[in-house]
Amino acid sequence: MAKTVNKTKTVYVCSECGNENPKWAGQCPACGAWNSFFEQIVEPDKPVTLTTKADPMKRAVPKRLREITAESELRQTTGISELDRVLGGGIVKGSLILVSGEPGIGKSTILLQMCMKMRDLRILYVSGEESPRQIKLRADRVGEYPENLFILSETDISAVVERTQEAAPDILVVDSIQTMYRQDMTSAPGSVPQVRECTSELMRIAKSMEIPTFVVSHVNKEGAIAGPKVMEHMVDAVLYFEGERSSDHRILRAIKNRFGSTNEIGVFEMTEEGLKEIPNPSELFLLDKPENVSGIATLCVMEGTRPIIAEVQTLVSKTPFPSPRRTAVGFDYQRLNLILAVLERRCGLFFGASDVYVNVIGGLRLDEPAADLGVAMAIISAAKDFVLPEKTILIGEIGLAGELRAVSGIEKRLHEAASLGFTRAVIPARNRPKGSFPLEVIPAYSIKDVLNKI
Ligand code: TYD
Ligand code: MG
Fold first, then answer.
1. What is 75-279's CATH topology?
2. Atom of ligand 1 at shortest distance to CA of 175?
3. Would the CB of 245 count as within 6 Å of ligand 1?
4. 4 pLDDT exceeds 60?
5. Among candidates 386, 404, 391, which has minimal Cα distance to 443?
């Protein structure tokens, strides 16, 4: 017979992956994270009797697939089209959506604005961080109060669940998961076990009552979502709100979305009256572009289905130190090293004695290979100190042989460039765009070819 545990015991839990260990270790054997184990007291299991009331999740009955109505497919629009876009076209019934980002980036603001736009719905906004008065002050700045928006200041998750069951709202918002706690657990709010348990409570209520639930989560200083990865696995969508402190631009992107694409981004600007949508981000990213300066190029990347024109700035400067610096903001560091190696071997440039800095304007992050040509040309322009021609857009992925490789969605990119007043576009020769475009299209085979034609 198995021995029943009736004493409290101590386990060590990895804060990165949630792995449990009986002993402390410097490195987690499961995920390899260093210094991530923290102590946790485990209370003895309560005896389970058969009379325990089954929770609503367990009472669900299996349904035939063909009997399930397509009604569950219906999406509720949030009233903020940039948010709808990132969600994949609106809110799906019963979905659990995590909204994460650094403190002060605007998570509470966007969710409150969303609540205030959905005027026909009953919404319960639970805040563990701010008092109802503080929320009202914020609401005053962003719009008019709707009739059916209820504010609850609460941090006990079982009280939140109870109030939700009573009120049966159409939408539930919980701000933030790090302030919520379960009374019967010994660990502090915000600790991994608390975050995990509170998330699963919310998931239960979202699924059983089919209430779309938004959960705010802060990120730790490495940019990872605080709490275990397990939280990311539990929810249906993870939206990440990012932007630089110094600028007012905010970008919302889906890192995970069970009901849509993860490539879409939403662009906002933080103003005195809350967040404003930026329906045409290219214009924003091109604002204040300096003229007649070397090291600057414009390029076009696809963010999901939307082409976005971006500006990249580079600086190449001589250094007396033996190991030169490479800095990339908004661009992948490894990709930068690769481009530098290609430029050295295929174009005869030498960067061994120079620092190279790459910066993408407007807090945008270029993680699509079609940005390669723009970055490479900006670096050549900075190294040789010549100005790239005005009103020219550079599109193409660079291969290790220095060749230009075809990219997807070339027509959309060309249309976007033309609509913003660009007159020339350099594209990979293998891309043969269909249709005619109101700008000069210059096909090129390689980086060298681009240098000759531009
Ligand atoms: P907030 O939504 O509280 O951030 P989070 O919930 O992610 O921690 O955003 C707070 C910041 O936004 C704060 O610096 C003030 C600023 N802000 C504005 O500039 N305009 C506004 O209308 C509002 C409501 C906030
Ligand atoms: Mg907040």
1. Rossmann fold (3.40.50)
2. 6
3. no
4. no
5. 404
